[in-house]
Design a protein that fits this description.
The protein is mainly alpha-helical. It is built from nine helices and two strands; from the N terminus they run E-E-H-H-H-H-H-H-H-H-H. The chain is globular and about 60 Å long.
């Protein structure tokens, strides 16, 4: 748990900023490399960058504040809402925020929406790998207590109080490396526009729900083990399956 990466005089550089920046750069670079395979200029994808960054951060922060209002913000100074350098971003909020930003941008620039969504989908999984490493450095999104050989310990000041816990951040990162590789492979084999993005929704919902089984940082659970992210994952999974069903497919030739 090392939130501070390094310091330059009075300027403190946090791992949060470093890793989030690396995640966005890796995602945009790989998407830019992938775009020409579908006849889309890389520049059009790269121009999306600022829109996606702003949408993701705003959406992720809003959902975090809503989710943890009673525990963290109801009695704190109002300015704490904007202190994102301390951590506190909810991925599903970021996904929703960046998706809305993308839709607005695609409509304005008249981009083929599902084709570009397929270009971006593997890179979203790659960027998430870096995002979960932010959680590891900040000591948030930690796992339940366990005595496994690969359990990790955070400092006594962490809410885990130094007990060994599941490294859920690492679980999530590794699963999303696999998801990225699978989606990058699927992109070259896809049969219709929107297929890769739809499979991203399905794949992420499954991997996230799996990791949620080991999370230990929620103030309460439904039925003893169901987390709020499980409920959102169910909606994301259903959305992905519906898209796979309804998106236009190429007609089969005799």
């Amino acid at each position: 748990m090392h939130p501070l990466a390094f310091q330059i005089g009075p300027l403190s550089i946090h791992w949060y900023g470093v890793l989030v920046a690396l995640g966005f750069l890796a995602g945009l670079w790989t998407a830019g490399r992938r775009a020409p395979l579908s006849g889309i200029a890389a520049e059009k994808v790269l121009d999306l960058g600022p829109w996606l960054i702003i949408g993701a951060i705003v959406g992720a922060r809003i959902l975090h504040v809503i989710s943890y209002w009673d525990q963290e913000y109801a009695r704190a100074p109002f300015t704490e809402i904007f202190m994102i350098q301390k951590g506190g971003l909810v991925y599903y909020g970021g996904l929703i925020g960046s998706s809305l930003a993308y839709i607005i941008y695609a409509l304005i620039r008249k981009l083929p929406m599902w084709k570009v969504a397929d270009i971006l989908a593997p890179s979203v999984a790659l960027g998430y790998v870096f995002g979960r490493l932010v959680c590891l450095m900040n000591g948030c999104c930690f796992g339940r207590a366990c005595d496994l050989p690969w359990a990790i310990r955070f400092p006594e000041t962490n809410p885990t109080h130094g007990q060994p816990v599941h490294p859920t951040q690492i679980y999530d990162s590794l699963l999303n490396v696999v998801l990225y590789l699978a989606l990058a492979w699927l992109y070259r084999k896809k049969k219709f526009d929107g297929q890769v993005f739809s499979f991203y929704l399905v794949g992420y919902a499954i991997t996230r729900s799996t990791v949620e089984m080991f999370r230990g940082d929620y103030p309460e659970y439904y039925a003893g083990w169901i987390t709020p992210a499980h409920l959102v994952s169910a909606g994301i999974l259903l959305t992905g399956l519906i898209l796979l069903w309804v998106l236009p497919k190429p007609e089969k030739t005799a």
